[in-house]
Amino acid sequence: MEPKSFLLCITFLLFSSSSSSSSEILQKQTYIVQLHPNTETAKTFASKFDWHLSFLQEAVLGVEEEEEEPSSRLLYSYGSAIEGFAAQLTESEAQMLRYSPEVVAVRPDHVLQVQTTYSYKFLGLDGFGNSSVWSKSRFGQGTIIGVLDTGVWPESPSFDDTGMPSIPRKWKGICQEGENFSSSSCNRKLIGARFFIRGHRVANSPEESPNMPREYISARDSTGHGTHTASTVGGSSVSMANVLGNGAGVARGMAPGAHIAVYKVCWFNGCYSSDILAAIDVAIQDKVDVLSLSLGGFPIPLYDDTIAIGTFRAMERGISVICAAGNNGPIESSVANTAPWVSTIGAGTLDRRFPAVVRLANGKLLYGESLYPGKGLKNAEREVEVIYVTGGDKGSEFCLRGSLPSEEIRGKMVICDRGVNGRSEKGEAIKEAGGVAMILANTEINQEEDSVDVHLLPATLIGYTESVLMKAYVNATVKPKARIIFGGTVIGRSRAPEVAQFSARGPSLANPSILKPDMIAPGVNIIAAWPQNLGPTGLPYDSRRVNFTVMSGTSMSCPHVSGITALIRSAYPNWSPAAIKSALMTTADLYDRQGKAIKDGNKPAGVFAIGAGHVNPQKAINPGLVYNIQPVDYITYLCTLGFTRSDILAITHKNVSCSGILRKNPGFSLNYPSISVIFKRGKTTEMITRRVTNVGSPNSIYSVNVKAPEGIKVIVNPKRLEFKHVDQTLSYRVWFVLKKKNRGGRVATFAQGQLTWVNSQNLMQRVRSPISVTLKTN
């Protein structure tokens, strides 16, 4: 996906923060130094800070004469997310620390990028009565959701605390003061706010980017992304919410009764891992219940993944962690944030549309969508000449600013291909050159994706099929003309959910033995809160002002699941993060609102696109059975993958012997709610074990139903589970056997299916696990 504006990129990217300068070995950059926990040496120091500082002092004195105090180079001292610190080091100093027996790892800092009025209704949360999700969960009351993002606009009506209960006594956080942000900016809804900028600040000097927009050095949001995600996760009820008249309705977050704590870790140049780790470290101490991270990067190994490492300790302390899957779809194996202790969320569509149809002069209609407020405006819908400027090296087909010849496009409607610059930026380029309207054309990579924008001039987005027809008409017509007919807001007339084209896909490169993403949730054209000093496009030259705007991305789907997680936690405060995730996954939908299989483009969606399916909070609040996982199980799981002792220490902060663990756990299977089976070359049978815990009614009986993957025979034992009481746990085994025709490699190397436990007393209660089978050919 393109950036919403030059201020904000909602496509995930991962860059090294190390400088490309040739200033050799003395140039400093930020490194995260992870230490062995609970070492005897630490006890000889007055504080952890002093202990951490001693490593820096030793490295500095061992390499060069230092004019500045070593303490000035220490950015963060960590103690909850990891044991260690972040500091400015030269390459030789970092290398020296790697040789220390008390150092687990030394990693360069990395920068990552960030990734409503209707969606709660689409998810069925607006029902009332004792059986509704909001009623059972008390709207999420008592739960604290930590949001790591670009900050918050506290004056937004979505953070009004009218009717909110008192702040939970366990809360240990603060409302950190800073630029245009005081302690009074927080209330009973927005109970805490902090900002983390040290990693970002040392990596970016003001001289490097004099044209960057103004950033608040505080928890105040300068881009809108954090305000949008925070209000989606738990925003208060706001009547008459709309975007310049479109999408009107009552805005609510998923858990409107929950408390929100904001941790600003993302700035105009991205989100640095040292700052992210510091925020996770503090959030654990603050006693949040849920962490929502709409940020990430490309897939990387778990032992190098700051988010995976930092959130392991959060999970150990009972905190549910929800992460965006990434916006690099539909590329295979693009899914990020794949640690099994986090919930990885892809994006789906809603059945809400904003039609803006292109009517050609020959009478043909091409369907498009837009949030430009043009309905009923005569000037916005008038017929004008259409032009598509191509050729040259200025990027005119993408409508880059300064690339469009005014003499050719003045007074005309301009076709712009998607890509390179932001969608709304293209409209500004047209305005500057004298154009009056825009047709934003999907390219082949975008297909029929329909992420809308609040454009600066009359404009609409058309799919790839329509764009081919549009360009053919322009090329074949002497004086092509068209008009845009704006249709406002239309609900319930289209199939939904469908998988968003941009939503990252599995299988996981870093961790293929776990099926990722875990599930999908609404992430396309989500309307939520927006800073009151920004226009709805987020562009600096957009003078319009709104309280809400529209955004798309897995950044938007992530907070939906974060809020629903808070609801389930509020209803079942003693459940583990794994049990809550299980409830969400095993009850997820495979079918859309019309009862047909969820689509991924023009085909049924596979498990690598939707994981377990589309989240369904109405079912998740009463899952019947859950698959629980203890923190120690993840360590055993990492041992089964062949991770080294040092890798496991880096990830889990535990110094373990895998040989001993594996002897005690022969044939171990991680008790994950989905099933991923990998047949290595020459193997014909694989067996897994699962355990389910009854969280429904006593004296419940479940029978198994299997849809076997093609070419695979599936045997389950036992086929019937009888639970005498609540919280009872029973085990079952599943054998996957390659059929003879599959053993010669003559069929597909991948197949999918599902295993479902059906409640015999309530056939509507079904506990379903998706199955992924991969046949390795080498």
From TrEMBL:
Residues 403-466 form the PA domain. It is found in: Secreted. Belongs to the peptidase S8 family. Keywords: Glycoprotein, Hydrolase, Protease, Secreted, Serine protease, Signal. Transmembrane segments: none annotated. It comes from the Eukaryota. Residues 670-773 form the Subtilisin-like protease fibronectin type-III domain. Residues 140-599 form the Peptidase S8/S53 domain. One of its GO terms (biological process) is stomatal complex morphogenesis. Residues 1-22 form the signal peptide. The keyword Secreted applies. The active site is at residues 149, 225, 555. One of its GO terms (molecular function) is serine-type endopeptidase activity. This is Subtilase family protein. GO terms for cellular component: external side of plasma membrane; extracellular region. PANTHER family: PROPROTEIN CONVERTASE SUBTILISIN/KEXIN (PTHR10795). The keyword 4Fe-4S does not apply.
